[in-house]
Amino acid sequence: MGVVKEGCFPLFPFFTLHVILSLSIPLLPLSVHSKCAKNPIIFNFGDSNSDTGGYVDGLGLDFVPPNGRTYFHQPAGRLSDGRLMIDFLCESLNTSYLTPYLNSLGPNFTNGANFAIIGSATLPRYVPFSLHVQVSQFLRFRSHSPALMSNGYKDLVGDGDFENALYTIDIGQNDLAASFDSLSYSQVIDRIPSFITEIKYAIWSIYQKGGKNFWVHNTGPLGCLPQKLASFARDGSELDEHGCLVPLNNAAKAFNAQLGDLCKQLNSQLINATIVYVDIYSIKYDLIANASNYGFTSPLMACCGYGGPPYNYNANITCGRTGYTVCHEGSKFISWDGVHYTEAANAIFASNILSSNYSTPSVNFNFFCNKI
Ligand SMILES: *[C@@H]1O[C@H](CO)[C@@H](O)[C@H](O)[C@H]1NC(C)=O
Ligand SMILES: *[C@@H]1O[C@H](CO)[C@@H](O)[C@H](O)[C@H]1NC(C)=O
Ligand SMILES: *[C@@H]1O[C@H](CO)[C@@H](O)[C@H](O)[C@H]1NC(C)=O
Ligand SMILES: *[C@@H]1O[C@H](CO)[C@@H](O)[C@H](O)[C@H]1NC(C)=O
Ligand SMILES: *[C@@H]1O[C@H](CO)[C@@H](O)[C@H](O)[C@H]1NC(C)=O
Ligand SMILES: *[C@@H]1O[C@H](CO)[C@@H](O)[C@H](O)[C@H]1NC(C)=O
To answer: What does the record give under GO molecular function (predicted)?
Structure first.
């Protein structure tokens, strides 16, 4: 694990590289190695956008093929055909993929832990595995680690390393999605501040235990997901020029505006902390809007699903369920299963994240490394 292997990738339109390789082979994404003096440590919180196996560890199951087919060649606890953005971000730091906190079979937490769980939301607060529960799990992990280490347990994070770690958060999509299932647009908008308050609480809680480095992803264009389009795009009146649902995307933008304000506010309130706000929405929407420039064909159609164009999504026959169909070339699809992205899309999202062009303040993903 760690370094991107050649041959796994389609042609890459761009990637910020320290080294440009090759004359005859296509341009491949290379890991941009950080200058971390020590093992970089990451604690991640979120939903399926960054769950690297917590859900399947917790439930004692795994997903069925074709999940994982492109990179891991078997289901790997991720809802994708391959790696997620967080996996590529770990590769950029030359560190192992994050071990789920719920992994009880020889876990290795040397480089941090992943608390993200598929389906998670900020609210309701006290259900598994809301952001609040994930943060509680982290606080427990943190408070129990020193005693375990002094008893000889290895593969944990040392006391001082919690302060230098990076805390990444990617949550909110399920709050918005669940709200739209039962509420009107204006009721959804009214609920957004309560979601933002949970994220604020999470950052404060970690900061109070010494965390200083935060990397906060905003939420993607919900209204471009094939799943949402298949259930809400009835007459086309609510679609924008790229075929996405305007109300859902406007709610995502409203959430993001408030999240951006929160990050700005916390940057001035939390002494010595850096809270980086990353505009994932723009990264994802740009790829959907400009899909053909990147070599993708049907940006609003799931690779794995049922029903064919325009969305290839049927709630009764989702990816892996009896009757599904799967595209031949996942590298030409942005959506994997109607909700989650393909490895090819995730790789491009990650390369844009790593460019720092979408970060406020404009710092590199490895900004916390030089503090180690
Ligand atoms: C990346 O990790 C590998 C193995 O973990 C190590 O051999 C290599 O030196 C590392 N590279 C950098 C640039 O840190
Ligand atoms: C745990 O992971 C670290 C790097 O992430 C590695 O150096 C170490 O060897 C691993 N431990 C085990 C027991 O595999
Ligand atoms: C901020 O960092 C400086 C320099 O490391 C330190 O002296 C100071 O105590 C820190 N302040 C807080 C509130 O953590
Ligand atoms: C599509 O790409 C063009 C050219 O790079 C860019 O100007 C435009 O903003 C992109 N569209 C979206 C929606 O991001
Ligand atoms: C899914 O199955 C239910 C119950 O059989 C049916 O009412 C519904 O129309 C089906 N949905 C789709 C999208 O086919
Ligand atoms: C980031 O912005 C710079 C300067 O505008 C541009 O040259 C570069 O191509 C951008 N990188 C990405 C990945 O968008």
So the answer is: hydrolase activity, acting on ester bonds
